[in-house]
Amino acid sequence: MEQYKVEKSSVLLTNIFANRVDRMKSSDIRELLKLISADVISFTGGAPDPDAFPSPDDLRDAVEYILANRDKAFQYGITDGLPGLRKSLIDFMYRQISIKADLPNVLITIGSQEGLEIVGRLFINQGDKVAVGLPTYLAALQAFNLWRPKYIGIPVDDNGLNTVILEEMVRKHKNTKKPIKFVYVVPTGQNPTGTIMSLDRRKHLLEIASKYDLFIVEDDPYGFITFRDDIPPRIKALDEEDRVIYLSTFSKIFAPGIRLGWVVANETLIKQMSLAIQAINLCPPNFNQYMVKYFLDNRLIDRNIPRIREIYRVKRDAMLSAMDEYMPKEVTYHRPDAGFFVFAYLPDYIDAKKLLYFAIEKEKVAFVPGRSFYVDGSGYNTMRLSYSLPKPRVIVEGIKRLAKVIRNSLMR
Amino acid sequence: MEQYKVEKSSVLLTNIFANRVDRMKSSDIRELLKLISADVISFTGGAPDPDAFPSPDDLRDAVEYILANRDKAFQYGITDGLPGLRKSLIDFMYRQISIKADLPNVLITIGSQEGLEIVGRLFINQGDKVAVGLPTYLAALQAFNLWRPKYIGIPVDDNGLNTVILEEMVRKHKNTKKPIKFVYVVPTGQNPTGTIMSLDRRKHLLEIASKYDLFIVEDDPYGFITFRDDIPPRIKALDEEDRVIYLSTFSKIFAPGIRLGWVVANETLIKQMSLAIQAINLCPPNFNQYMVKYFLDNRLIDRNIPRIREIYRVKRDAMLSAMDEYMPKEVTYHRPDAGFFVFAYLPDYIDAKKLLYFAIEKEKVAFVPGRSFYVDGSGYNTMRLSYSLPKPRVIVEGIKRLAKVIRNSLMR
């Protein structure tokens, strides 16, 4: 590329933004992560291991299938998503996770992030109360924030969101002007804790939703990346009253670079979601949808899931055993049963964000400070460690470095 | 697919929508178009001709290039878009349309529709005044409507948006509580009229923007599909004060099925746009971006543009000469110099929407009633006829049928 000098008198339009722009801030995390150079061991993002991506030969075969459907694959599509893909996906969900759906219940999105965007857009009026985990997935909060909800934080422990406390909070807010409207939950491989909500709590959550007339947003990006056998059914699979909006993504079981996710919900909700997407970006890419349809129809994703699980199980084990060995006893952490992350708690006099500067500068290791995952301003002494991308031996080295940083901060 | 019966007690969540949902209505057009069966000749959508799509052999080569970059192509990307693609695009814009930009001025979007979505989200407060053509592109209005602007309609004639009237309106609203904030314009192949804004008016528009401190949104999906030689420079290429937000798309010069578009603007605006996209869908698909980069770097898009122009020129000519021959003299229309559409005016006692029912039911031909393109409630006697998809002989047959419907309605 030549560099084209852009010489403008630059009247610079600084006062033209709408008043909602202050709700579109870059997260602390992203700003901090810009400090990371190539020699830093990074436990930051949730990027999949490229070993989990589809194989070149399968992809070439998929491309021949796409070319056989060239006139449609390159054309505009239906806003709801390619019907053929939605059908294949319905079969996939039934055989893999016992979720039953018909075509009008399924919508294809640009990653599950677009599902979160639409949930915010369609359901959150200013001041509406939304119950979320303490901690919970940061980017869901970013998507919801634009619409100015009031968050009600519910503690998460090794069995997931604490539904007893949830029910207390729902009851407490029931007769206020704004009762709790919906519960956002990541029950299977919670982000950031990696915990799996117990079956009892899943059932209790549905009971609460029914009793107090709430709905549930079940976000399930990591539900296929599980490390034990007794995974309870998805909340959507237990949902008798159609109160669950289920979101998932092909990012972890196929590849994030194709940006496809999906929503399963009541037909009326899907229709309205589809109208929202029309205005946002018209429709998801047909090309990518034919690609995923090929992989689904040939059971290539089904066959890949056990292999992918093994990739991440090995990495999780590497991180946990390194932590068991090297971390000072003051550091506690969840032992994740699913997903990409170990979530750790430091002594409460340590600010993880301050620690991050030392970690990057002195020891060349990076993590995500946990505070952004807490809607109540707490969690400053927590950290999320992703094991999805680095190789196992790099994970061990990174944990050694991190343990050193933490030990040093304990002595201060 | 097996059909999974979804048996739910269906408490049906009808009262859960946010109060902005009434601004996300399906357009009349889309509802009407559901009536279209396979035997109807359709002049409705703006779908490209598949003959204009990339060739299978080039695509296979592109896939090998993508596979050589597999670890990145399948991975999450940068919210602003793949830097390599943005560099290739900067070169492309410079050689094709004399727009100068640096990397921080360019953002990749999901079609140019996502550019429109972001413009609305970032710049429109409730009641903000936005000047648009009479008529103007329907889906831009749909994207903006969510934020409740007040539209100021400015007539469009064969030389594009009338900037003399624009200046009058800008002056009139200047000292009100809400002056006109920006002008949305499709100067090169206006949708729906197909007109090209004259150079004088482009310069005048920039003068107005400078004098009254407005900004300009230049939407350019059809700027490469032109049918005469003396196309004036893009407004962005004349923009000395960085007042233009330029939007375009690969949908017409490559394929809509990959859903990629782009924005060129001041760096400060691009940064804020990028934050908005983070919350909407994280990032555009890397896979698709590598694909387009391959086609740009090998000049395959440049080489294809003259061929694509010829495809649509032949179709435009087929439609115009059929209209000249068969349409009653009461029907007038623009002779498009660019784009996919002929826009026609019926006698003012004819409602094009009512006509559409007869056209579909009796004569098996469909078009888009023009009223939705008018922000002032006028245009009920107008129609948009797309020639992009049907074969030339089908276009002629469709125009014959449509002329018959119109002749019949003239006699009523």
Describe this entry's structure for a reader.
The structure is a homodimer of 412-residue chains. Chain A has two domains: 25-46 and 305-411, Aspartate Aminotransferase, domain 1, CATH 3.90.1150; 56-298, Type I PLP-dependent aspartate aminotransferase-like (Major domain) (Aspartate Aminotransferase, domain 2). With 412 residues, chain A is of the alpha/beta class. Chain A starts with 27 loop residues before the first helix and ends with a helix. Chain A has helices spanning 28-33, 56-68, 70-73, 83-97, 111-123, 138-145, 163-174, 199-212, 235-238, 267-281, 286-297, 300-326, 352-363, 392-411, and strands spanning 41-42, 106-109, 129-134, 150-157, 160-161, 180-185, 215-219, 244-249, 261-264, 332-333, 341-345, 365-366, 368-369, 382-386. In chain A, α4 runs parallel beside α11 (286-297), α5 (111-123) crosses α10 (267-281) and α7 runs parallel beside α8. In chain A, β6 (180-185), α8 and β7 form a beta-alpha-beta unit. The longest helix of chain A has 27 residues, at 300-326. Chains A and B meet through α2, α3, α4, α5 and α6 of A and α2, α3, α4, α5 and α6 of B.
